[in-house]
Design goal:
By secondary structure, the protein is an all-alpha fold. Helix content is about 70%, strand content about 0%. The longest helix is centred in the last third of the chain and has 26 residues, at about 130-155.
Length: about 160
């Protein structure tokens, strides 16, 4: 069930997009973007949600239009084959695309940071000279291993 605040927020976004569309010069990229946003917001306001197949078809149509306009020609790797990523197949299906987007944006997922921290702790443990340093490194490593295991398990679900 929709909340009144959600409806108001959607209506405000739609109105702002309409104003932006009207203010932009005709045929400009800003005007096309604003018109697309108005269409998307108008679709959200009207009727039931579309199926995944309809969404896929709409995305394919928009990509084809962008390719015809030449908007994709400046994209990195345009026209080149995709290179297989070593971790792609080992990554759970549900998080592949979000992780890919993070990687493209140059943002490291928290799980990768934890793995790097684990490697640093293992080096610290190997370099420990006193029992106190060893014990502290072992405790930190055990805590980190538990945190990492819990994070990875939550990704599998």
């Amino acid at each position: 069930m929709l909340k009144l605040d959600d409806v108001k927020a959607a209506l405000l976004r739609w109105r702002v997009a309409r104003r932006r569309e009207a203010a932009a010069p005709d045929g400009s990229p800003a005007q096309r973007e604003a018109a697309l946003q108005v269409q998307v917001l108008a679709r959200r306001r009207s009727g039931p949600a579309r199926s995944a197949r309809q969404v896929d078809d709409e995305i394919a149509r928009q990509i084809a239009e962008a390719e015809k306009r030449g908007d994709l020609a400046g994209a990195e790797g345009y026209g080149k084959p995709l290179h297989g990523d070593d971790g792609w197949e080992r990554t759970p299906d549900e998080v592949r695309m979000p992780f890919k987007m993070l990687k493209s944006a140059g943002i490291v997922p928290h799980e990768v940071e934890l793995i790097r921290e684990r490697a640093a702790l293992r080096q610290r443990l190997a370099a420990a000279t006193t029992d106190e340093e060893t014990r502290a490194a072992q405790q930190a490593l055990a805590q980190l291993e538990l945190t990492l295991a819990l994070r990875m398990e939550s990704l599998r679900r």
